[in-house]
Design brief:
heterodimer, A: 373 residues, alpha+beta, globular, B: 363 residues, mainly alpha
Chain lengths: 373, 363
């Protein structure tokens, strides 16, 4: 008993667990580090604390009945999971989506992207001690949650995307509120420039930290902001447009190939600006017409297999479905963007200081429920 | 006058209220309880309340608003709630040290307050080289913090305790060296004599009367921020990465002791800075005619300055992200220590050139 009493004079490296319940990663996830002083000697990650077998559950459910589960895969950008799934099922049956439905899909996708990026930056700011700025970012995310509540009654798990369209139509009141949000948000973005981007302490904490070269990022099959911050301009919205993204003017931000925590932060900030551009364009040219195809009560997908991928807030979100022509999928596989990051994280963290671990992990925007699903 | 009361001016002050001679231990007890209640319990609780209200205001929240008018009794309500909470001691903890560490901390910081004069004769202990005594107490409090974290036996707390030791290297030198210039001017290491050479009007304050000391003021201000372990120097308890740092394992009433100690550290830092650099208890106009009641006005003016400085510290805490260990060390040894040293050098030159007069005298 006595020798176990916190003996600190020892040659053994100190073992410290971040999690399963810690503020480092969103959701339960364990990072165990071996420390020599403050230096990280080795890292082991452990996931599976929130594994629900969502891919297996799909085999027991109907095509439409499985949609709410996709919200729980990545609940911070719930729209994108449902969208990829709906697109895969629609391509099985060769359904044509009404133009208004596609526009609403883009609208909510981008709103959700802003919300998710805001929370990512808020957590990052919290990790470096900028709690006040974190509060400001959460305030803006709250406004997006309110918009979604107005649209579909839910604030986090929307179940808004349906096979053949979306659940509810966009009203004039919603358009007005969204425009109002965009106005205040552009002011907020200037605030963040001052509070974070130009802040010397924030810059000093993040730059040259957790550097991922473009080759490393490609080897680890990273996608999304983590990949783009390393200088690889890969964005499905540009490279394989869906829902009619090609009709809207926006840019994929390029920041060179530094790939440190600061450029990952900056890229997310710039992506939010691009998202507001897309939302403005969508709102200005909303077409009239139906927002959903009526598929009837017993929807059967045609036999075959399909894969669809969207650019979610964290990267490439792919859904593969296999159908035997019954009322539900016979097999389903998800390709989630955080999964490769987890494997890569161990390599990235070794050799850094433990005080920087939360910052690096937060900048990678890992979502535990999406890793385990 | 009783001989033993000479070193306790506050007890002496209370003694003047009684016509007949009374036992000295009675007035000493009166003085100590006066100090404890007024300056330790009430003022520090007020600092804690201010902190929460200002933080809420900065973050666009409401803050405490239920207990008492505009939530003024929240700190006491929290303390009361903490008393009834379960008090758990980890099995790996070094039990005796774990229990005694917060109590030692409380008493150390109370003792340190004894050296601060809140008004003309309102000082608990007036002795030679009390400025050095204060620096020793600062170090002792910080060291006790290390033991508090070490005693818990938790890897998290031990890690942040050792970070605290790094901070020990960073704050003590700037703070101690910053005292050189005022001591040089006063010609004595007693805080009372440092206050005595200043005046109530702003141009008679140390930082304005002897301009080189403004470098010392800055160095000491930042050094004390490091000592408090507040953002941007909250390496031992950065909420994002270190949980609650070395106090994570403390629960119930012990956890609230630490909250209180944090506020006390902030209040003490502001008191020390105001005493040494910003005129101390001196009132701007002559109030000798009030007699014994003059002390009340002096004390109120002193507290006003202290709370303004405290608010400034609170703003800094809630506005800035926190820095790394290496950045703190670099700041301390590359900026603060040279600043404090050059301040004392320039002050020496000033003293030679003006024959010891301040701006207030020269004007």
């Amino acid at each position: 008993m006595n020798e176990s009493k916190g003996s600190i004079i020892s040659d053994e490296p100190l073992l410290i667990d971040f999690g399963p319940h810690s503020s480092v990663v969103v959701g339960p996830f364990k990072i165990q580090v071996k420390l020599d002083g403050e230096k990280i000697l080795s890292v082991s990650t452990e996931s599976g604390y929130i594994h629900r077998g969502i891919e297996k559950i799909a085999e027991k459910l109907t095509w439409g009945g499985f949609l709410p589960f996709l919200d729980r895969v990545d609940y911070l950008s719930a729209i994108h999971g449902g969208l990829a799934y709906a697109m895969a099922v629609e391509s099985l049956n060769g359904l044509e989506i009404p133009p208004r439905a596609s526009q609403i899909r883009i609208l909510v996708s981008e709103l959700n992207r802003i919300g998710s990026h805001l929370l990512c930056i808020a957590l990052l700011a919290e990790k470096v001690g900028a709690t006040t700025t974190s509060m400001y970012l959460r305030r803006d995310r709250e406004k997006i949650n309110n918009l979604f509540e107005m649209l579909c009654g839910a604030r986090l798990t929307y179940s808004f995307i349906r096979i053949g369209g979306v659940a509810f139509d966009v009203t004039d009141g919603f358009v007005e509120k969204t425009n109002e949000f965009l106005r205040t948000f552009s002011q907020s973005l200037r605030e963040y420039e001052d509070l974070l981007t130009l802040n010397k302490v924030f810059n000093g904490r993040l730059s040259q930290l957790g550097v991922i070269s473009s080759q490393m990022a490609l080897d680890a099959s990273l996608t999304g902001p983590n990949l783009r911050a390393s200088g690889v301009s890969f964005d499905l919205r540009k490279d394989a447009p869906y829902c009619g993204y090609e009709k809207y003017e926006f840019e994929v931000p390029r920041l060179g190939d530094i790939g440190d925590c600061y450029s990952r932060y900056l890229l997310r900030l710039k992506e939010m600006v691009e998202s507001t551009k897309i939302i403005r364009q969508v709102l200005s040219r909303l077409e009239s017409g139906p927002f959903r195809i009526d598929l009837g009560k017993d929807f059967h997908a045609k036999p075959g297999q399909a894969y669809a991928a969207v650019e979610s807030s964290r990267g490439l979100f792919g859904v593969y479905v296999h159908s035997k022509g019954s009322i539900g999928p016979s097999r389903l596989k998800l390709r989630t963007p955080s999964f490769p990051v987890v494997g890569f994280m161990q390599k990235l963290l070794v050799g850094t200081q433990v005080s920087d671990l939360p910052t690096i992990v937060a900048s990678l925007d890992v979502m535990a429920s999406e890793v385990d699903r | 006058m009783n001989e033993t009361l000479k070193v306790i001016p506050l007890a002496n002050y209370f003694g003047t209220f009684f016509d007949s001679p009374i036992p000295s231990f009675f007035v000493i007890l009166l003085a100590i309880s006066f100090y404890t209640v007024l300056f330790f319990i009430i003022s520090v609780a007020l600092v804690g309340y201010l902190e929460r209200k200002i933080a809420a205001d900065i973050q666009m929240r409401v803050g405490p608003n239920r207990a008492g008018p505009i939530g003024a009794f929240q700190i006491f309500a929290d303390f009361l709630a903490a008393i009834f909470k379960q008090d758990s001691i980890p099995t790996r903890a070094r039990r005796r040290l774990f229990i005694s560490a917060p109590l030692f901390l409380m008493s150390f910081i109370m003792i340190a307050f004894g050296a601060i004069p809140f008004a003309d004769s309102w000082v608990l202990s007036n002795f030679d080289w009390s400025a050095v005594f204060v620096v020793v107490m600062l170090g002792l409090i910080h060291l006790m913090m290390f033991f508090a974290g070490y005693s818990t036996g938790s890897a998290w707390s031990i890690l942040s305790s050792f970070r605290g030791l790094v901070l020990f290297l960073s704050f003590l030198c700037p703070v101690a060296l910053s005292l050189l210039a005022p001591i040089l001017i006063a010609g004595d290491g007693s805080i009372s004599s440092i206050v005595a050479i200043q005046g109530g009007a702003p141009w008679k304050w140390m930082v304005i009367s002897y301009p080189p000391t403004i470098l010392s003021f800055f160095s000491m201000f930042v050094g004390l921020l490091i000592w408090q372990g507040r953002a941007p120097f909250n390496l031992t308890a950065s909420e994002g990465s270190m949980l609650q740092g070395l106090t994570s394992e403390y629960s119930g009433v012990r956890a609230s002791y630490f909250e209180y100690i944090k506020s006390a550290q902030l209040f003490f830092s502001s008191c020390l800075l105001v005493t040494i650099f910003l005129g101390g208890w001196h009132f701007p106009v002559d109030i000798e005619s009030f007699g014994r009641a003059a002390c009340i006005f002096q004390c109120l003016f002193f507290l006003l300055k202290v709370f303004v400085l405290t608010m400034f510290s609170i703003w800094i805490r809630w506005a800035l992200p926190s820095v790394r260990v290496q950045q703190v060390l670099a700041l301390s040894w590359r900026i603060l220590v040279p600043l404090a040293l050059s301040s004392s050098l320039l002050t020496g030159l000033w003293m030679v050139m003006t024959k010891g007069h301040g701006m207030g005298d020269l004007l």
